[in-house]
C-alpha cells in the first residue's frame, strides 16, 4: 500500500482508530464497517501490523488486517452516490476528491500537523446543490455572504478544492487573531509549496489545485489521473443536476487535460 491509497474498513463490528500503534492506546473513534480511510505517511518504527491513516479529518492508527484497498472491496456505489449529501451538510470524505488534489490535501495537513499547527480537512467534495445553498446565503437567505461561486463555478464541484480549518480542543476554529494569524499564513505557504492556490482573505480556509481554469472544468476538461471513486461521484452529480446552471459534459465525453 502507498500514501493516498483509499482503504475500507473490513472488520465486521467496526474498527478502533487509535492514537498510537498499539492495542492499549487511546481509541479516537470507532470506524464503522465499510468506512473509508486514506493511508497516510507511515512513521519510522511503526509495527507492520499497524497502518497510519486519515479518517474524516482525524489521524491515527488502525490494525492492518482489518482494512483493504477500496478498489478490491468497492462493489456497490458509495453512500454519497446513492444518497446525495443534504445541502446543509458538508462532506470531508477524501474518497470523492480527485486523486491529485487528494494527495496534496493530505500532504498539506500532514506538514502543518508536523509543525504543531492543528489544521484538518473540514470540507472536501461539495455537491452543486450545496453550492447553490451556500450561494443563497446572504442573498436570498439570511447570513453573511460565504461564496462568490454559483454551482459548477467552484473547484469544490470537481473534487479539486478543500477547506482547511483549525481543530483545537475538539472544536473547529476559524480564529485568525493573535498567534493563529501565522498559522493561516502557513496554510497558504505550505499549500502553495504543494501546488495548491489559496483564495486567502476572501475564503481563508480554501485551497484548490493551481494552474487550472474553471472554464476548462465547466467544459468537461478535467485533470488526468482520476480514479473510479472520484469519477463515479462526479458522473453521478452531473447526471443528477437539475438546477439552472449548466453542468459540464460527463467525463469521458471529452479528452482529459494533460499532466503538463
Ligand atoms: Zn472552499
From TrEMBL:
Coiled coil: none annotated. It holds the Pfam family VanY. It comes from the Bacteria. InterPro entries: SH3-like_bac-type, VanY-like_core_dom, Zn_M74/Hedgehog-like. Residues 13-67 form the SH3b domain. Residues 97-167 form the D-alanyl-D-alanine carboxypeptidase-like core domain. This is SH3 domain-containing protein.
